[in-house]
Write a structure and sequence with these properties.
Helix 1 (2-18) packs across helix 5 (125-136). A hairpin with a 2-residue loop joins strand 2 and strand 3 (81-88). The model is unreliable at 1-22 (pLDDT under 50). The protein is built from five helices and seven strands; from the N terminus they run αααββββααβββ. The protein is α+β, with helices and mostly antiparallel strands. The chain has a seven-stranded antiparallel sheet with strand order 4-3-2-1-5-6-7. It has helices at residues 2-18, 25-37, 42-52, 105-120, 125-136, and strands at 57-66, 69-78, 81-88, 94-101, 139-148, 151-160, 163-170. The N and C termini lie close together (7 Å).
Length: 173
């Protein structure tokens, strides 16, 4: 079952890694600082956010450096809207929960796609992150459930040495 998915992942990583370009030095420095200081993984942050927001399902998780420390922000679909949960990446403490309303046609269309991707995905964030980090030899810093060619896929941004790479990973097998 995972053999086909694993093969597709290897191809995606190979294509992306061979085409890497140097990212802005400030972005790379910030990501290196954030990954070094973070004690909470992206997967743990998703678990924290989904416990905090009843009925919420993650569609994006991002590590960043804000206000002097590493922070992880998790965007969740909840009913007909989104919520964003900010988590201290050292302690795991929830810092804030923001409502994000789908109140215009573009937002409603994006929310519809998010719901479709969540329903169609058979590969979870944890598996996508673990496999991508292993294949690319880097650290995931931003993962979004999106679609590629009409199928659900994870867009994974990784810190690989002094470069930021983006990899697309199928979210179904």
């Amino acid at each position: 079952m995972f053999r086909h998915w694993h093969h597709a992942l290897g191809v995606a990583v190979l294509l992306t890694v061979t085409g890497l370009a140097l990212a802005d030095e400030d972005d790379v420095r910030e990501m290196r600082r954030a990954t070094a200081a973070a004690k909470v993984s992206l997967v743990q942050a998703i678990e924290i956010a989904e416990r905090e927001v009843t009925g919420g399902k993650a569609v994006e998780v991002e590590l960043d450096w804000k206000r002097g420390g590493p922070r992880i922000e998790v965007e969740l679909v909840v009913g007909d809207n989104w919520k964003e949960v900010a988590i201290d990446a050292v302690s795991g403490r929830v810092l804030k929960v923001l409502d994000e309303r789908a109140d215009d046609p573009d937002d409603r269309e994006e929310l519809k796609r998010d719901k479709e991707n969540l329903q169609a995905a058979t590969v979870g964030f944890a598996d996508a992150i673990a496999r991508t980090e292993k294949e690319a030899g880097g650290k995931a810093v931003d993962v979004e459930l999106t679609s590629s060619q009409g199928k659900p896929a994870y867009k994974v941004k990784l810190l690989v040495d002094n470069k930021l790479a983006t990899v697309r990973v199928p979210a179904n097998d």
